[in-house]
């Protein structure tokens, strides 16, 4: 057998398992044993040691002495063979002399009947591709962490996948847990592996949809035959490169192209892809929340980058309630109780929106003003939060009356129009003479140093016209004079957005923030 291996004349088997191993001394024994214990013996395991620096190689060689079905190759540099072939070139793997190929990660486990049941299904359906369900388990405790189920089906064309697409997509996000006809896997390997340069973490999904192009007969087994190890240190759970946001768009377009090409772009399937796209963003928020290497400021900057995504903007308002709930839970998790009120975080419109919502429910001051500043922030390019303008819980405004009869497009145009007209429309308008008289009384109290009277006059004026420039100016000014610096700074972050056209207000804002 050793001589045959050296000459590349391996006996043809039913299934070749491919495993890429890197520094896997902790788990690889368990993974190899799960393959050796398969009830179907006519299999082969090819392991490529991808420049490991631990005892991975020694462990593999120990198993090669025990089991002649194990074949080993290695490279000294990551993702390039010692002869210089890259991982996306066919020479990266030895020749596949088998009917089917199956990928397995170096830390996962196979059900003992994986090969037997998958191969039997493949032969019964004459399938190009077979996929099974998956059980997720925790790395530290080995306890079950979830199950990915898949409907039982056998189709002879991709057109027939229409009713199963919502099952097919999650199952095909990964390369593992499947059998692919060797001829198809081998012939299209280089083509499928050349993914877009801007793809960050979703290469498996890109490749699987690539292989789907060449598979007509597709079958599934509704059993969890592949056991996937979930680790909080994996790339999926820890990688927070900003480029990961773009993966959602690349995969959305890839999947939409697939739906259109095979005439299965039904309303249900297109709606499903929207959910998948937002799920991608949720995964990123989850990584941000769990990251111990990032500061709160870095997490907030990244989160706001998510909301610049073009595709997200097309369904943001349609799913506003669900998305808002998830974002607010994210902010609840990453901000301590002290940080939730810390003025410096007010420079982030997501925080102002969060505080606005909380205060509106608690009937507290500044709720609507914070909402205004969050929606009108130039960083908030999709005007996330504008749906709250018709919420009657926001005090001191006629927002419900002002926006209730408008279409969403009209609301957006109104918000992007003349700021003064907007503020007048949303405020409780009284006679100009009455407003002018109250403003004069407020100014006089401030000039005389009667701060108690000034605060009283300001409150009365704010009840009538809360978003008036005069009111906001003196609200900040008096907050400084009476020692409420936190309130002054929070207002300053918001006011310089809402009243960006008013020099007196922006000047005062900069002074307040400079002092801080």
Shape verdict: elongated
Helical residue percent band: 40-55%
- The number of strands is 10
Tell me what portion of residues adopts beta-strand conformation: 5-15%
Poorly predicted spans:
1-8
End-to-end separation in angstroms reads: 76 Å
> Main β-sheet, in a few words?
10 strands, mixed
If you compute it from the alpha carbons, what radius of gyration comes out, rounded to the nearest whole angstrom?
30 Å
Helix count?
A: 24
The secondary structure category is alpha/beta
Mean pLDDT: 88
How is this structure best described in words?
This protein has 24 helices and 10 strands. The protein has helices spanning 2-7, 28-36, 56-66, 114-125, 165-171, 182-187, 189-193, 203-212, 235-238, 244-261, 267-290, 296-306, 310-315, 320-334, 349-361, 367-376, 399-403, 408-416, 419-426, 432-447, 451-464, 469-481, 485-498, 503-515; strands spanning 13-21, 43-50, 70-75, 98-103, 109-110, 129-138, 144-148, 154-155, 178-181, 218-230. The N and C termini lie far apart (76 Å). The model is unreliable at 1-8 (pLDDT under 50). Strands 1, 2, 3, 4, 5, 6, 7, 8, 9 and 10 form a 10-stranded mixed beta sheet that branches. α11 (267-290) runs antiparallel to α12 (296-306), α20 packs antiparallel against α21 and α21 (451-464) packs antiparallel against α22. β6 and β7 (144-148) form a beta hairpin. The protein is elongated and about 100 Å long. It is of the alpha/beta class and 516 residues long. The longest helix is centred in the middle third of the chain and has 24 residues, at 267-290. The protein is 50% helix and 13% strand.
């Amino acid at each position: 057998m050793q001589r045959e291996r050296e000459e590349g004349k391996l006996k043809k088997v039913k299934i070749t398992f491919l495993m890429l191993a890197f520094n896997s001394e902790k788990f690889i024994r368990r993974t190899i044993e799960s393959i050796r214990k398969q009830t179907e013996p006519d299999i082969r395991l090819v392991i490529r040691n991808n420049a490991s620096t631990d005892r991975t190689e020694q462990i593999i060689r120990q198993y090669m002495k025990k089991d002649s079905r194990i074949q080993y190759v290695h490279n000294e540099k990551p993702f390039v063979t010692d002869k210089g072939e890259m991982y996306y070139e066919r020479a990266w793997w030895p020749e596949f002399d088998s009917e089917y190929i199956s990928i397995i990660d170096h830390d996962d486990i196979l059900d003992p009947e994986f090969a037997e049941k998958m191969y039997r299904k493949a032969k019964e359906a004459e399938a190009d591709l077979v996929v099974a369900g998956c059980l997720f388990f925790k790395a530290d405790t080995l306890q079950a962490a979830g199950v990915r189920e898949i409907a039982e089906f056998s189709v002879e064309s991709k057109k027939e996948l229409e009713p199963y697409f919502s099952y097919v997509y999650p199952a095909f996000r990964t390369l593992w847990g499947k059998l692919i006809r060797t001829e198809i896997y081998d012939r299209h390997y280089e083509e499928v592996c050349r993914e877009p340069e801007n793809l960050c973490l979703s290469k498996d999904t890109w490749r699987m949809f690539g292989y789907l192009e060449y598979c007509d007969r597709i079958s599934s087994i509704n059993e969890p035959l592949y056991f996937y190890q979930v680790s909080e240190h994996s790339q999926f759970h820890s990688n927070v490169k900003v480029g990961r946001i773009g993966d959602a768009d690349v995969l959305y377009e890839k999947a939409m192209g697939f739906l259109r090409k095979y005439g299965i772009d039904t309303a249900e399937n297109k709606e499903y892809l929207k959910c998948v796209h937002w799920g991608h963003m949720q995964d990123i928020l989850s990584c941000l929340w769990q990251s111990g290497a990032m500061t709160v400021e870095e997490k907030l900057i990244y989160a706001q980058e998510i909301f610049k995504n073009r595709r997200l903007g097309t369904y943001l308002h349609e799913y506003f309630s669900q998305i808002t709930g998830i974002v607010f839970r994210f902010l609840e998790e990453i901000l301590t109780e002290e940080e939730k009120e810390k003025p410096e975080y007010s420079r982030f419109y997501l925080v102002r929106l969060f505080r606005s919502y909380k205060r509106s429910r608690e009937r507290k001051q500044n709720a609507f003003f914070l909402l205004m500043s969050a929606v009108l922030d130039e960083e908030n390019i999709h005007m996330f939060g504008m749906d709250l303008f018709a919420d009657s819980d926001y005090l001191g405004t006629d927002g419900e009356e002002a926006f209730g009869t408008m279409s969403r497009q009209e609301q957006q145009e109104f918000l992007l129009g003349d700021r003064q007209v907007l503020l007048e429309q949303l405020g409780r308008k009284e006679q100009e003479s009455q407003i002018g008289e109250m403003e004069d009384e407020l100014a006089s109290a401030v000039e005389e140093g009667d701060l108690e009277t000034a605060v009283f006059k300001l409150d009365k004026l704010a009840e009538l016209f809360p978003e008036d420039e005069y009111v906001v100016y003196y609200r900040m000014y008096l907050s400084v004079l009476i020692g409420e610096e936190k309130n002054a700074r929070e207002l300053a972050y918001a006011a310089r957005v809402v009243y960006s056209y008013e020099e007196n207000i922006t000047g005062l804002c900069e002074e307040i923030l400079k002092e801080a």
